[in-house]
């Protein structure tokens, strides 16, 4: 039994069904995909979650394990440039999709040895990757034992530098503040603050550049559909509009689930793809065995969330990259607002001058005609927390903030207000309701703090027969790690 048809749940179902298990997948929504969602209106089509595929080898492994070739199921397109950066001082940096060309592009845009500094940082990130990929990203989390494996070599510990933050390694190795901002952004890939996230997150830009940045023609939601098809072809049953009320525990182990309508579905194994906080807080009965995970989740900082604008636009924008990032003048002020730190300690709030991420695929499948565009616009935001933070359901807040964000884009040279057919606003509260993520925290727990990775819930729960998959569990958030979590869980369950 798999609860949740996000990418992690679908990938687990595909692997388990291919291994001979009888698998049923239960999804609360009307469609599969979870955060890898899709929205259509008036011929405009949007991915409502991730807009970039990295580490394609992870998906090749998944499809091969379920009897297919990735490239036969989805049309992957390498992005070049991978991303276009725009800084508050007017500097423009287009990062090439070809790894070897990145240092020259940085040097031409920023000068002062930026290309050589980035090369040196990526060399260290590659060493971090070699040390951590197998024992951490592809292996079940086993608390102190996992840490002990990583600590066997003093040289490896020095390379990983668990005492150092991503901001710290950037300040040590990158002299240009704009280049440090570019590095800091990768903390947000795990919903984190670069001032508190570990230096090992430098492996994220390394992996992105080493393995390429890719787009799925027709939208990334097609990746979820393709994985779902692999599951059903292997014999799995997908049931949408089926909300799970609780996980059944009988005889000391997971024994199935009960749906909202009271239907009870027995199972030898339950794999939960829902937010770990929701699983341990709402779906499981009180149990002394789950005190540890509940305590760790309470100790961890929840990940950031986001506000999304889906913009249906008339006309075309010349020279616009697939992905464009507009940085603010004060990046630290953004993280203070999102996490309620620094001068805003304990008072998170919508960011008045945020980094703005624009995904504008040049894909005919996503627009009603050639004289139109469909943009996904994202800004970092505090999660929905009416009691201690931001109440995103406050009347008028979403619309006011959407207007503010369009004005921010205009100030940064991309004014589309006169071209706007309509704008759909998605807040952290909306994300929480749609996907079950508590407060709309995109990645469950953040990577803030040296111990954050070891506070993340393990794939094997303390309740026998219950496993966790997806971005809120080990090894973390983001499409490739979610897919790796499915591989780990399938290995833990074993063949039928």
TrEMBL record:
Source taxon at top rank: Bacteria
One Pfam family named in its UniProt record: Amino_oxidase
Pathway terms, separated by semicolons: Carotenoid biosynthesis
Keyword Oxidoreductase: yes
Protein keywords: Carotenoid biosynthesis, Oxidoreductase
GO biological process annotation, one example: carotenoid biosynthetic process
SUPFAM superfamilies, per database record: FAD/NAD(P)-binding domain (SSF51905)
Domain Amine oxidase: 7-490
Keyword Oxidoreductase in record: yes
Coiled-coil parts of chain: none
Gene3D superfamilies according to UniProt: FAD/NAD(P)-binding domain (3.50.50.60)
Molecular-function annotations in GO: oxidoreductase activity
Family annotation (InterPro entries): Amino_oxidase (IPR002937), Carotenoid/retinoid_OxRdtase (IPR014105), FAD/NAD-bd_sf (IPR036188)
Family the UniProt entry places it in: Belongs to the carotenoid/retinoid oxidoreductase family.
Name this polypeptide is given: Phytoene desaturase
Organism: Blastococcus haudaquaticus
């Amino acid at each position: 039994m798999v609860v949740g048809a996000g990418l992690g749940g679908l990938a687990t179902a595909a692997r388990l069904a291919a291994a001979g298990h009888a698998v049923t997948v239960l999804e609360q929504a009307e469609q599969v995909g979870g955060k890898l969602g899709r929205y259509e209106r008036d011929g405009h089509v949007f991915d409502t979650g991730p807009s970039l595929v990295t580490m394609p080898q992870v998906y090749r492994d998944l499809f091969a394990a379920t009897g297919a070739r990735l490239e036969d199921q989805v049309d992957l397109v390498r992005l070049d440039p991978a991303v276009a950066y725009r800084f508050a001082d007017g500097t423009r940096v287009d990062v090439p999709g070809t790894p070897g060309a990145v240092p020259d592009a940085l040097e031409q845009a920023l000068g002062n040895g930026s290309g050589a500094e980035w090369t040196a940082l990526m060399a260290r990130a590659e060493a971090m990757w070699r040390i951590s990929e197998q024992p951490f990203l592809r292996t079940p989390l086993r608390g102190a034992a996992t840490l002990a494996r990583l600590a066997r070599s003093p040289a490896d510990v020095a390379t990983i530098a668990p005492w150092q933050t991503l901001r710290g390694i950037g300040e040590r190795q990158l002299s240009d503040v704009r280049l440090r901002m570019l590095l800091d952004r990768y903390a947000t890939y795990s919903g984190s603050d670069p001032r508190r996230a570990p230096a090992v997150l430098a492996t994220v830009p390394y992996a992105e550049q080493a393995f390429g940045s890719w787009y799925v023609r027709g939208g990334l939601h097609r990746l979820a559909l393709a994985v779902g098809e692999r599951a059903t072809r292997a014999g799995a049953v997908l049931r949408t509009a089926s909300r799970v009320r609780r996980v059944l525990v009988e005889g000391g182990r997971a024994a199935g689930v009960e749906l909202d309508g009271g239907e009870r579905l027995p199972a030898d194994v339950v794999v939960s793809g829902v937010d770990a906080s929701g699983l341990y807080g709402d779906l499981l009965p009180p149990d002394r065995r789950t005190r540890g995970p509940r305590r760790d989740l309470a100790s961890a900082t929840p990940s950031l969330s986001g506000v999304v604008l889906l913009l249906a636009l008339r006309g075309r924008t010349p020279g616009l990259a697939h992905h464009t990032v507009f940085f603010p003048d004060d990046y630290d002020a953004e993280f203070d607002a999102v996490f309620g730190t620094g001068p805003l300690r304990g008072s998170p709030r919508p960011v008045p001058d945020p980094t703005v991420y624009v995904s504008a695929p040049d894909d005919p499948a996503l627009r009603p005609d050639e004289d139109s565009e469909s943009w996904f616009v994202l800004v970092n935001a505090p999660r929905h927390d009416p009691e201690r933070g931001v109440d995103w359901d406050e009347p008028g807040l979403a619309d006011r903030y959407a207007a503010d964000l369009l004005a921010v884009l205009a100030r940064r040279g991309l004014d589309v207000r006169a071209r706007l057919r309509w704008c759909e606003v998605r807040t952290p509260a909306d994300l929480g309701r749609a996907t079950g993520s508590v407060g709309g925290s995109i990645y469950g727990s953040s990577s803030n703090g040296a111990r954050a990775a070891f506070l993340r819930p393990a794939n094997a729960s303390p309740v026998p027969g219950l496993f966790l998959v997806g971005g809120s569990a080990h090894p973390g958030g983001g499409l490739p790690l979610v897919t790796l979590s499915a591989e780990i869980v399938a290995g833990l369950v074993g063949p039928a």
